[in-house]
Amino acid sequence: MMPAQCYCGSHLPFSECCEPIITGKKEALTAEALMRSRYSAYASIAPEYLMQSTYFSERSKFTEQDLSDWASENQWKKLEIISIKNGQINDSTGEVSFKAYFQDAEGKNQIHHEHSTFIKENGKWFYVKGIINPQKLSPAVLIGRNDPCICGSGKKYKKCCGV
C-alpha cells in the first residue's frame, strides 16, 4: 500500500515530508517548509506542534484547544503557495503568502488567504504572525470593482473582498 501523500501538496508521502517535522524528528530548514508543516499540522490535527512552532511572544494569543478545535472543525483540501520572500536556510527572517482551501463545519468551501512572517532563532524557524486577506491592505493591488475577485472566489471584486 502506498503511503498517503502529504497534505501540503508536495507529492511526497506524509511520512517523508511534513510528519517528521511535526513529530520533531527533523527541523524545517526554511520558512516555507515550516509553513507547509503547519498546514499539515492543521490537516492532521497536531495542535501541540502548532503551538511549539509559533514564536514565543505570540503563543499567549490562543490555546492548544483553540487550535485543535479549528483544525478538527474543518476539512482541509489544498494548500497553494503564492509567494516567498527570504526564509531560506541562511536567512533569519522570511515571508510566505498562501491560500489554504478548506470546507467548514457547515459544508461551505472557504479560502484562508494569509501573508505570514517567520523568524529563525538558534537555527529553528518560528511562525510570528499573519495578515489575513493581505490584498485588502495593499494599495498596490489595482483591480476594477467588476473584475473577478483576486481571492479566487469566483465573485466580482465589489461583492467579495472589495466590500
UniProtKB/TrEMBL annotation:
It holds the Pfam family YchJ_M-like. It comes from the Bacteria. Residues 30-130 form the YchJ-like middle NTF2-like domain. This is YchJ family protein. The lineage of its organism: Bacteria, Pseudomonadati, Bacteroidota, Cytophagia, Cytophagales.
